[in-house]
Give the backbone structure.
Amino acid sequence: MAAAIALSRRGRSASAPNPNVGCLIVQPAPAEAGGKVIARGWTQAGGRPHAEAMALAAAGDAAHGATAYVTLEPCAHASPRGPCCTDALITAGVARVVIAAQDPDPRTDGKGIARLQEAGIEVVSSLLAAEARAAMAPWWTRATQGRPFVTLKLATSLDGCIARADGSSRWITGTRARAHGHLERASHQAILVGRGTFDADEPKLDVRLSGLEGRSPKKFLLTSGPAPDGWTAVASPEAIDAVDSVLVEGGAGAASAFLAADRVDRLLLYRAPILIGGGKPALGDIGLTDLADAHDRWRLADSRLLGSDRLDVYERAREG
Amino acid sequence: MAAAIALSRRGRSASAPNPNVGCLIVQPAPAEAGGKVIARGWTQAGGRPHAEAMALAAAGDAAHGATAYVTLEPCAHASPRGPCCTDALITAGVARVVIAAQDPDPRTDGKGIARLQEAGIEVVSSLLAAEARAAMAPWWTRATQGRPFVTLKLATSLDGCIARADGSSRWITGTRARAHGHLERASHQAILVGRGTFDADEPKLDVRLSGLEGRSPKKFLLTSGPAPDGWTAVASPEAIDAVDSVLVEGGAGAASAFLAADRVDRLLLYRAPILIGGGKPALGDIGLTDLADAHDRWRLADSRLLGSDRLDVYERAREG
């Protein structure tokens, strides 16, 4: 299942409006871990084919009697865009389906599992469910909470500054950290900056990584005014409905607005081993009135060195 | 030698005005790594006995024909406070002396090694010299640069704040990080705070760790005015001459003054997984006029999690 989850990440951001699912077909159907992977699939750009359809097409007749690992419960509702995956798995004659997360979409939500079982297929569910949900966090957040999954990126000095007092910020972090930032851009449907950053930099926000230029996300500007050419205006953190994942890149005003609205799900903190002193702080007021309320909101999910910079990734530990 | 360096750290801060040295006596004198440790020594509080004297006393006749590992070249100058260690090693009949760092004190500086060799003792030097120097950094900095070794401690939120805008800072870091801070206090001869911190908190700055209460350091106040009772007034970062190690604990004014004067050798950065937003920044102006000048000054020496907080230790990577 871990391998299926890794596959599912390939479709993150690109598979919208459908969930980015991963699927492995394994023969012979193993009771224990083992067996041989005979086909792989992941939800393709635009949402079709689904992961199961891609894997079953690759497996062909070899799917008969096999085990399918899928990161999300197979869909049980037919769509004008294609057959439902539950029926496809039954038709292919798989013997066993192992599922990570149950589909929160009310059109499926357990119906896929029930129909597989009615067809005599053994179903195992909830294997690595949390990991699978995390891999499809944008779609999951939209499906369960009706809002996009928001990542806030901050690139600071050791003393928490995002620029010198005069606004200069080139460069705080090094080339490896900046390249990682471009990789993060490629996995989001939209990037957002505030008015101050736009006016100061008119940032391009494109993905400057070889082979990923086509993954440059939409550009959102947090503003009450009109959108510049090529940009989408967003009046508030609550007003985003066109995308499932947003990377908030700058500056302190936009970051603070999203935190104050409790709309940040993930923090990307790039920190360079430098001291600035008296520089521009990463955040303005976020509505904190008691230090005790600041605790237990963030859980360290990843930490690594990128050259001489450190990246810490924190995820939301609780709602509200 | 690594074990001797670990021993040397026991005397750090307490051994002043003498260097905190570590010594191991090993039998039989091994040509390769190996042998049995028959005695240990480290410079005692107040500077006497020296590490070698303590180890030789413990070894007794068994020192004859043995190898002595010492983290600093044995002293070659007699003192009214005791015999010189070079003579003591010769008298004890050791066959071999392995030395980490050569003594920068002009009264020894190579003379110890020369005298041992003249007595027919095999001498190996410069083994783990950098590590040994780091373990006696306060004494080394005083001996070679005529100034104390300064550690700057900052305890911040992820966005680099040391307090909320109203000054509240209890608590940003958790109990394990604060206990580690007390351990750092115990390894310094003095703690310094600025006037603002003193007026706001009148901090006790004592070591609140069981068994280490007696290691509470002197209390320095960075001020142009008179010292309060129990405190020593320090007019500027350059004005400290009574101690070899200082821990600068707060607040932003004192930290910035030491950084602006280029008098900080080590950074202790405790960072809690919280966001404050619009709080008190860790630093004020430190005289940085170009971001490029901020780079390559600090090298990551240690990084660890203390509960949910992270401690990063940076050391000075270059002078000036």
Remarks:
- The domain at 147-316 of chain A is CATH 3.40.430.10 (Dihydrofolate Reductase, subunit A).
